[in-house]
Write a structure and sequence with these properties.
heterodimer; A: mainly alpha; globular; B: alpha/beta; six-stranded mixed beta sheet; 8 helices; 38% helix; 23% strand; binds adenosine-5'-triphosphate
Chain lengths: 252, 271
C-alpha cells in the first residue's frame, strides 16, 4: 500500500510539473495543453458516453482477437515443444514471423477481409500469436525431464500426462507468454484502429489529430496507457504473481 | 515376486557403446547398489530397467515379463525430488494412487499413513518449495512407496544432500525397505553408502560399461557407516573402482592416447 501511495504521489508530482511547465513556458495549447485541458476533454467524452463506447468497442475486439490467439497459440506451442519435426519447421517459421511487426499484416488482412471487423481481429490475433506460441513452446521444453520421467513411471500417459503433469508444470511459463501476448495484442489493436478502423480508442486518438485537438490526443494516449496498465498489472500481473508464488518460483 | 533378470543388456548411443553385455539377477526384495565412475552408464542401466530407455540388445525381465516401457510396478527416485510444485505434499503422495484408480478418500488415507512413516504428516498441506531438500526426498520416498511397488529404482537419490541429512535418509530407507521389502536398485557415487545399504554392490567398469565385480555385503543390519567391517569392504570396493577412475582420468587428460576403441575385456585400468 505504501508503494501504491508513493506511485500516486509520483504521478501527481509529474502532473504538477507538467502544469507548471505549460503555464510558465508559455507554450501554446495546440502544442501542449495543460493537464486541466486534457482532464476536461476526458471528462466531456466520458459523460457524453463516446469514450466508454470507444473503450467497449476496443475491448470487444481485444478479447475476441486475443482469445482466438490463446486458443490457437497454446496448443500450437505445446505441439512445437513436444514434436521435434514441428519445431524445426513450423518453429523456424514462427521465429521468422516474430520479426514482422503485427501492423504489417494489415494490408494483407484488408485484401482478405476488406474494411471489416475481421481484418482488425486478424491483426490482433497475429499480434499476440507469435509470443504466445514461442513462450508456450519454451515452457513445455524446459519442464525438467526427470519430472516427466517420474510421472511416466507412476503410470501417467497420454492425456493424463498432458493435463495433469506437463501443462501444470509449464503453466507459469505459458502465463508469461499470455501476458506478453496481451501487450502485443493491445499494441496491434491500437495501430490497427489508428490506421483505419471505425470506432475504438484508436479512432478517438485519430479524431483528435484530425481536429487538431491536442487535448484529445493526449486524453486518448492517457486512456490507452491507463487501460493497458490496468490489465497488464492489475489482472494478468496478479495472476502471474500468485501462480509463481504457489509454484514456489519466486523463492531461491 | 520374481527376481529381476538383466540379460545381456547392451546400450549404444549412436556409435558409442555405453553398456556392454550386462548380466545381473536381483532376487526379490534384494537391495543392490551400483557403483562406477562418472559416465560409465549407471543411470543408463537404471533407465533401461525402468523402461525409460531401451536396450540395444538383451532384455530385462521383471515379474517374468520383459520391460517394454515405464510402469507403476517399478518406481523411481532421482537426485532431485521431482515433486510437483503445484500440488501440496499430500496431493503429491496421492498422485500415483489416483492414477491407479484408487478412490480419493482411500488415497488420502494411505498417503497420510505413508507421510507418517517418513515423519512428515505435519507438512501434509505444505507445498514442496516450503520444505528442505531432505524433507523433499522423504516425500519423494513416500510417493515412490505408497503404491507398494515391487521394484524401487534409485539414481543417486541422496547425492545432493548434506552429510547429516544423508545419514538420516540412510536410516529411513533401510527401515522402509525392511518394512515393504521392495527389490531395490540403487545407483550411487558414494562407496560407503553402497556398502552401508546394499546386500550386494555391483561395480561397473567404464568405456564401455561392463560388470566388473559384484561384492556381497554379509553384514548385520542396521549398519553403522563407521563400523569396521563396513570400512574394510568400502576399501575393497574403492580399490576395484580406482583402476576405473584412473582410466577415466587418463582419457580426460589425453583422449588421443587411448583413442575411441574399446579396450579388451578385462583390461581393467592397465592402459
Ligand atoms: N541420451 C543420450 N544420448 C547420447 N549419449 C548419452 C545419452 N545418455 C547418456 N549418454 C552417454 O552415456 C554415458 C553413460 O551415461 P550415464 O548417464 O548412464 O552415466 P552415469 O554412470 O550415470 O554417470 P554419472 O555418474 O555422472 O551420473 C555417458 O558417457 C553419456 O554421455
Ligand atoms: Mg547418473
Amino acid at each position: 500500500m505504501a508503494l501504491f501511495l508513493k506511485r500516486v504521489a509520483f504521478i501527481a508530482a509529474l502532473i504538477a510539473l507538467w502544469d507548471l511547465f505549460v503555464r510558465f513556458g508559455e507554450i501554446p495549447t495546440y502544442v501542449f495543453p495543460a493537464p486541466l485541458e486534457v482532464g476536461k476533454n476526458l471528462w466531456t467524452n466520458l459523460v457524453s458516453g463516446s469514450l466508454p463506447l470507444a473503450i467497449l468497442v476496443s475491448m470487444k475486439r481485444l478479447f475476441i482477437g486475443y482469445g482466438l490467439s490463446v486458443l490457437a497459440g497454446v496448443p500450437l506451442g505445446i505441439a512445437l515443444g513436444r514434436i521435434p519435426a514441428l519445431s524445426w519447421s513450423v518453429g523456424t517459421l514462427i521465429v521468422g514471423l516474430q520479426a514482422l511487426p503485427s501492423i504489417c499484416w494489415l494490408p494483407l488482412a484488408l485484401l482478405w477481409f476488406g474494411l471489416s471487423e475481421n481484418a482488425i481481429l486478424f491483426v490482433v490475433l497475429l499480434g499476440a500469436l507469435m509470443s504466445i506460441v514461442t513462450a508456450t513452446e519454451d515452457a513445455i521444453r524446459t519442464v525438467p525431464p526427470n519430472t516427466l520421467r517420474a510421472a511416466r513411471m507412476m503410470g501417467a500417459r497420454g492425456h493424463v500426462l498432458y493435463f495433469r503433469v506437463l501443462l501444470p508444470a509449464a503453466f507459469p511459463g505459458i502465463l508469461t507468454g499470455l501476458k506478453l501476448g496481451w501487450i502485443f495484442a493491445w499494441r496491434a489493436l491500437m495501430a490497427g484502429e489508428l490506421l483505419f478502423v471505425a470506432g475504438g480508442i484508436g479512432q478517438y486518438l485519430h479524431t483528435g489529430r484530425e481536429l487538431n485537438d491536442m487535448a484529445q490526443v493526449l486524453a486518448a494516449m492517457v486512456s490507452i496507457i491507463a487501460l493497458g496498465l490496468a490489465f497488464d498489472r492489475l489482472i494478468l500481473g496478479r495472476i502471474e504473481q500468485q501462480v509463481r508464488a504457489r509454484w514456489g518460483l519466486d523463492r531461491s | 515376486m520374481k527376481p529381476i533378470y538383466i540379460q545381456g543388456v547392451e546400450k549404444r548411443f549412436g556409435e558409442r557403446l555405453v553398456l556392454d553385455a550386462i548380466d545381473l539377477t536381483i532376487a526379490p526384495g534384494e537391495f543392490v547398489c551400483i557403483v562406477g565412475p562418472s559416465g560409465c552408464g549407471k543411470s543408463t542401466l537404471l533407465n533401461v530397467v525402468a523402461g525409460l530407455e531401451f536396450a540395444s540388445a538383451g532384455r530385462v525381465l521383471v515379474d517374468d515379463q520383459p520391460v517394454k516401457g515405464p510402469g507403476p510396478d517399478r518406481t523411481v527416485m532421482f537426485q532431485e525430488a521431482t515433486l510437483f510444485p503445484w500440488l501440496t505434499v499430500l496431493e503429491n503422495v496421492c498422485f500415483p494412487l489416483s492414477l491407479a484408480g484408487v478412490s480419493a478418500e482411500d488415497a488420502r488415507a494411505r498417503a497420510m499413513g505413508m507421510l507418517r512413516l517418513v515423519h512428515l504428516s505435519r507438512f501434509a498441506s505444505s507445498r514442496p518449495h516450503e520444505l528442505s531438500g531432505g524433507m523433499r526426498q522423504r516425500v519423494a520416498l513416500a510417493r515412490a512407496l505408497v503404491g507398494r511397488p515391487g521394484v524401487l529404482l534409485m539414481d543417486e537419490p541422496f547425492a545432493a544432500l548434506d552429510a547429516q541429512t544423508r545419514d538420516a535418509m540412510h536410516i529411513e530407507v533401510q527401515r522402509l525397505w525392511l518394512e515393504f521389502k521392495p527389490t531395490v536398485l540403487f545407483v550411487t557415487h558414494n562407496v560407503r553408502e553402497a556398502v552401508e545399504l546394499g546386500d550386494r554392490v555391483a561395480i561397473l567398469e567404464t568405456l564401455p560399461g561392463r560388470l566388473k565385480e559384484v561384492i556381497e555385503v554379509r553384514l548385520p543390519r542396521p549398519r553403522d557407516p563407521n563400523d569396521r567391517d563396513v570400512n574394510i569392504l568400502s576399501a575393497r570396493v574403492n580399490r576395484a573402482l580406482k583402476d576405473e577412475i584412473d582410466k577415466v582420468m587418463a582419457l580426460e587428460r589425453d583422449p588421443d592416447k587411448t583413442g575411441p576403441g574399446i579396450p579388451p575385456r578385462g583390461a581393467g585400468g592397465h592402459i
